[in-house]
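Hey, sorry to bother you again with one of my protein questions. A protein chain has come my way and I'm curious about its shape. It would help a lot if you went through both lines with me. I owe you a coffee for this, so here goes:
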Amino acid sequence: MFTEMKLSAWTTGVRSKLKLPLRVELWNGQTFDLSSDPPRVTIKVSGPSAMRYLMVPSLYNLGRAYVEGAIDLHGRVADIISIGNELAASSAKVPGRLSRALHLIPQHTREKDAEAIRYHYDVSNEFYQQFLDPNMVYSCAYFDTGAEDLADAQVKKIDHILNKIGLQRGHSLLDIGCGWGALVIRAAQRGARCIGVTLSENQAALARERVARLGLQDMVEIRLQDYRDVEGQFDRITSVGMFEHVGVDNLPEYFERVNKLLGPNGVVMNHGITTTDIESRSTPYGGGEFIDQYVFPHGELAHLSTVIKAMQQGGLEVRDVENLRRHYARTCATWSDNFENNAEKIKSMTDQKHYRIWRVYLAGCAYAFAHDWISLYQIVCGKAGQDPVQIPWSRQYMYQ
């Protein structure tokens, strides 16, 4: 009875601040509605011990409760994320974004970085195939008109990158964090000699299969290798969706290494997620803590200003910056829709915990990009102090 009275007081308090179309259903069947409107989301509480998550409903607590099975969530996943964020924001007793100083900053060793990559990417290739495009491009797509489907938008993203770096036949290209090989394959088809590196065994295996299937073995080499162990110099370097794993404090060293790998008159493009918080703090209401524990161990997001400063510290000149936040919101929303549409097949591939992690993660990312918590920038650089004579005068070449 005490628990039910406490929950009744909590729902009354929330209802006085918000009118959420949310129902809380207890283990005994009793229900509490937080609005007079029909509920779009129902939280089913498994038992009294789960009540602590609702009393302090941060995104971390709600996400953890769902993933660990303390609560169940019913409704459209987009509604679940939206209502969860409103609930967390209205109940927050601390600033929305937590300082990096409040958390132990992870030490990025080669072993820990490789372990984090394997945790996230080596679920199974078949798992990723359920929500990605046929080329399995796991990064922000590029919607030239907004009418493209995901497959076309991902091809356009790769072409947009290759156009931005001015890739020519005969160029050597290094792709840091090559995923399942879509970019290096496309670049090789345009006549470039490519090396793609990844720390994921699953990615490397499938990428090599695809290269062989297309007869591009003489043009593309896929390596299971840390970028810090790559030697030589390259005409062009791309890094797509990888530098989020480097660590904010390590970005100057990262870009210095990229600079050393870049040949004379070379061009590099970094495509990566950034935080919109100027102090590079965590995403609001405990969302960052959930991601760190369950999705991307040791991942860190820097603000755009921090990234540009680190690039200059690494000896690179920033030549072009493009914000693709809107594009990533659309990409993640499409991934989330695909995940929902293939839910039964995905459940047969993995355990309930991983299914629930990815379900709220993909939809949560779509919300975060749509609401400007995080962003995505493509930044084109060259070696500092050089006349970029190989780059055309205008930006028109990027859109050919």
In short: The chain has a mean pLDDT of 91. The radius of gyration is 23 Å. The domain at 110-399 is CATH 3.40.50.150 (Rossmann fold).
